[in-house]
Design brief:
The chain contains 6 helices and 4 strands, in the order ααββαβαβαα. By secondary structure, it is of the alpha+beta class.
Length: about 160
C-alpha cells in the first residue's frame, strides 16, 4: 500500500509549506515582471482574495504571439524546457466507456489551444526564468526565420 508512505511524506513537509509558497510567489512575480516585455504572452494572475500556493505558472498566448501553442511547446521542449499544454485534452474529448452528453464547449476549446504551463517549482531559479523569458523574446523577434525553420525541419 503506497498511501501510508505518501501520507507520511506529506505530513513531514507541512513545516516547509510557507517557505515553498514564498519561493513559488517569488518565481511567479519574476515571471510577471519579465513577461511584461513580451508581446503575445500574458501571465494568468491569481485571484488576490484567495490563498494560493502559486504552484503553477499559467500563460495565455494571445493573437499577437506569432506561433500556435503546439509550435511554441515543440520549440521550447526541443530546448529542454519543461512546458506543458494546459487543459489538454479536455475531458469532453476523452474517450469514455459510457455515454456522455456534451453541450457548448466554446470556452473550453479556447483554453485547450492557447494556454500553457511554464517551468516552475523548486528546481527553477530566477536565472532560469530570465533565460526562459529571453528565449520568448528571441522567438518573438525572429519569428519569420524560426517559423521557416520549423516548416523545413517538420517536412
Amino acid at each position: 500500500n503506497l498511501i501510508a508512505p505518501h501520507a507520511a511524506m506529506t505530513l513531514a513537509c507541512l513545516d516547509d509549506v510557507d517557505r515553498q509558497i514564498e519561493n513559488n510567489k517569488k518565481r511567479f512575480y519574476t515571471y510577471r515582471e519579465l513577461l511584461k516585455d513580451v508581446k503575445g504572452i500574458e501571465l494568468v494572475e491569481y485571484a488576490t482574495h484567495e490563498r494560493r500556493s502559486f504552484k503553477n505558472i499559467l500563460v495565455k498566448l494571445t493573437a499577437e504571439w506569432p506561433y500556435t501553442r503546439e509550435e511554441t511547446l515543440l520549440i521550447l521542449q526541443k530546448e529542454n524546457m519543461v512546458v506543458r499544454p494546459y487543459y489538454y485534452p479536455p475531458l469532453h474529448l476523452k474517450e469514455t466507456v459510457y455515454p456522455v452528453i456534451v453541450g457548448d464547449m466554446t470556452n473550453t476549446s479556447l483554453l485547450m489551444t492557447n494556454h500553457m504551463l511554464l517551468p516552475c517549482g523548486e528546481f527553477v531559479s530566477e536565472n532560469d526564468i530570465k533565460t526562459i523569458v529571453e528565449y520568448f523574446k528571441f522567438l518573438e523577434t525572429n519569428h519569420v526565420t524560426v517559423k521557416n525553420s520549423l516548416k523545413t525541419n517538420l517536412n
